[in-house]
Design brief:
By secondary structure, the chain is an alpha/beta fold. It contains one helix and eight strands. The protein has two domains: about 35 residues; about 80 residues, Immunoglobulin-like (Sandwich).
Length: about 140
């Protein structure tokens, strides 16, 4: 009986070791590992397609593009008018998932070249991140 228990225990340990190795390899493949790509320092200059608003004129809804590249959202923060649509495009070679902190939106898996759009109707600040790479963060401010 002892030998049977020991044999089953050894099989269980081997199975757990294999599963842990598979999990780790999958994590590395989907981009959880260390990236060799360098990230450019963020610029305080507004993006070319970012709308500008002043106190003198009401902000008008627009379509804004956020690029996902170098394991970062570019620009990482945008200020837009209510009713505007933000489109995220993945230019990285790995999958990213754009997810709101409050779960208001979620893109699902975006592979290279794919896009996801969301229209912001309510004023406020909306934080988001990449569900695959949680250190990737962004913010949409709706005025």
């Amino acid at each position: 009986m002892y030998l049977q228990i020991k044999k089953h225990f050894n099989i269980l340990i081997t199975f757990r070791t294999i599963m842990a190795a598979l999990f780790f390899m999958t994590w590395l493949i989907i981009g959880g590992g260390i990236s060799c790509q360098s990230q450019e320092p963020s610029s305080s200059a507004p993006a070319v397609n970012e709308p500008t608003t002043t106190d003198e004129q009401p902000a008008t809804p627009a379509v804004i593009e956020v690029t996902i590249e170098g394991f970062a959202f570019k620009p990482a923060e945008i200020t837009i008018a209510a009713g505007s649509t933000v489109t995220w495009q993945n230019n990285d070679s790995v999958i990213h998932i754009v997810t709101a902190q409050d779960k208001l939106f979620d893109s699902g898996s975006l592979s290279n070249g794919n896009t996801f759009s969301y229209t912001f109707e309510q004023k406020g600040t909306f934080e988001y991140y990449c569900a695959v790479h949680p250190y990737m963060k962004g913010r949409v401010i709706i005025e």
